[in-house]
Amino acid sequence: MRYIYDSWESIMNHDRNPLKNIPDTNTRHMIMQVLAWMWCIAFSSYFSSMWIFGITAIAHIIILAAIAVTVATFEMAKRNPRFLMNKLYHTPSRARAIYIKGKRYELDPRDVGGEHE
Fold it and tell me: What pTM was computed for the model?
């Protein structure tokens, strides 16, 4: 199992493969995307089907987008955690009242709310 993990990391992790010698992370990321597209085209050409190219291209877009969103979220949490807290958690349109068994209870307007506080 360790061999599979190390093999994957040596190819797919741009911090461990030879692309680590390129100082700009954006350039490394772009090269990895171009290589992914190249392999999509090679794989679909091998099977002589543009349908396979379409499926593998869409799969790569979804996976790369998910990775990019995850990395961006982690970087934002590391660099400016209050940004995520203020932008994603507290919403100004939140109701300022709660109903329990049909009776309305007003909430403190200064309370930012949230179930984890």
Answer: 0.41
Q: Where are the alpha helices (DSSP H) in 13-49?
A: 25-46
The residue type of 29 is H
pLDDT tens by residue, 60-102: 888 888 888 887 777 777 787 676 665 544 555 556 677 788 8
How many of the other CB atoms lie within 10 Å of CB of 56?
19
109 phi-psi bin (left φ>0, alpha ψ -120 to 50, beta other): alpha
Q: What letter would DSSP give residue 114? A: -
Residue 33 has which token pair? 């995307």
Structure tokens at 1: 């199992």
